[in-house]
Automatic annotation (TrEMBL):
Domain HTH lacI-type residue range list: 3-57
CDD domains in alphabetical order: HTH_LacI, PBP1_LacI_sugar_binding-like
Species, as recorded: Krasilnikoviella flava
Alphabetical keyword list: DNA-binding, Transcription, Transcription regulation
Name by which UniProt lists this protein: Transcriptional regulator, LacI family
PANTHER family xref list: LACI-RELATED TRANSCRIPTIONAL REPRESSOR, TRANSCRIPTIONAL REGULATORY PROTEIN
GO molecular-function terms, A-Z: DNA-binding transcription factor activity; transcription cis-regulatory region binding
A Pfam family: LacI
Length: 341
């Protein structure tokens, strides 16, 4: 396997972004540092990838081209993220090249490989590939990850634990002692961390949690999960996202159950669909518009970095919160004085 830029950075004792600038903007780092990086590259046989377009240090507002990779444009929360990023990118003089990987890690790999050396930087939103693989594929190109943690590059993370805590506390107050959780894609970083948080919080609040298997992050996926939710005996369910939650509402109705009288349903994302659904969907609000803006700002910072000491990758955590609507109610037979009737 050919040597990577990460290996060069480790051998030279510098950050990945500094090693990247040694090949893309050598005039913007100290000569001693540059010499160390070049020497490390020669020692391990690293050859820089396609030459990047030279940036003019006197014009930091030069327009740039950014590749944005998303898992599913049909998901409203992804569309919200893209729209906010594109609007802010225009202000930053960044032109976005948008690609939909259709939730496939293989397609992500192909897209990143194809665009490397042809764009100025990358934003990967909710990728299915591991963070380190994405860093390797992007090589010397500046990269920002959204909803995928990394200690190598900047990332923006929606901290759904805040919202999940509110959701479980709310359900517990309403008398729900058994709650189901419907997972999303097994390769999703968000899914992994939401499930871990839900397990921990359910235990804290003495709630029995039934975690169901992975499902497509669509209404069809939620519809398919509805029977499994009902079979658990749970009186409430939290779904991986709003689409899955709405599918569960539909599936429950097909099974003769009413929401929220027989089953309370909570989604995650708080998309526009949540407020127009019948019943209106209780959901955990995830600030993906803010994530879109921040991802552009972080990438802009990488593209315009001057010869200042690196402080390491920056991780931004965005809080979430529960928005209560019509799809949740007290558990069947619950007495507000604290006992079941």
């Amino acid at each position: 396997m050919a040597p990577t830029l990460t290996e060069v950075a480790q051998r030279a004792g510098v950050s990945l972004s500094t090693a990247s600038r040694a090949f893309s903007e050598p005039d913007r780092i100290a000569q001693e540092t540059l010499a160390r990086v070049v020497r490390a590259a020669e020692e391990i046989g690293y050859v820089a990838s396609s030459p990047r377009r030279q940036r003019n240090a006197t014009r930091p507002t030069r327009s740039t081209t950014v590749a944005m990779v998303v898992p599913d444009l049909a998901n409203p929360i992804i569309a919200t993220f893209v729209k906010a990023a594109q609007a802010h990118g225009w202000y930053r003089r960044q032109t976005l090249v948008l690609t939909d990987a259709d939730g496939s890690p293989d397609r992500e790999r192909e897209i990143l490989g194809e665009l490397h050396g042809r764009v100025d930087g990358f934003i990967a939103c909710s990728p299915r590939l591991p963070a380190h693989d994405i860093v390797e594929l992007c090589g010397d190109s500046p990269l920002v990850l959204v909803n995928r943690d990394s200690d190598e590059v900047p990332s923006v993370l929606a901290d759904t634990e805040h919202g999940l805590r509110q959701a479980i506390e709310y359900l517990r107050v309403l008398g729900h002692e058994r709650v189901a959780y419907v997972q999303g894609n097994q390769l999703s970083w968000s899914n992994e961390h939401r499930v871990a948080a839900a397990r921990r919080l359910a235990e804290e609040h003495d709630v029995e949690l039934d975690v169901l298997g992975w499902h497509a992050e669509t209404m069809a996926g939620g519809n398919a999960a509805a029977a499994s939710v009902v079979a658990t005996g749970a009186t409430a369910v939290i779904a991986h996202n709003d689409l899955v939650a709405l599918g569960i509402v539909e599936g429950a109705a097909q099974l003769g159950l009413s929401v929220p009288e027989d089953l309370s349903v909570i989604g995650i994302d708080d998309t526009t669909l949540a407020s127009v659904a019948k019943p209106q969907l209780t959901s955990i609000q995830v600030p993906m518009s803010r994530a879109g803006v921040l991802s552009i700002d972080l990438l802009h910072g990488l593209l315009a970095q001057d010869d200042e000491p690196d402080t390491g990758p920056r991780t931004v955590h965005l809080p979430t919160q529960l928005v209560v609507r019509q799809s949740t109610a007290p558990a069947p037979g619950w007495d507000p004085r604290g006992a079941r009737r």
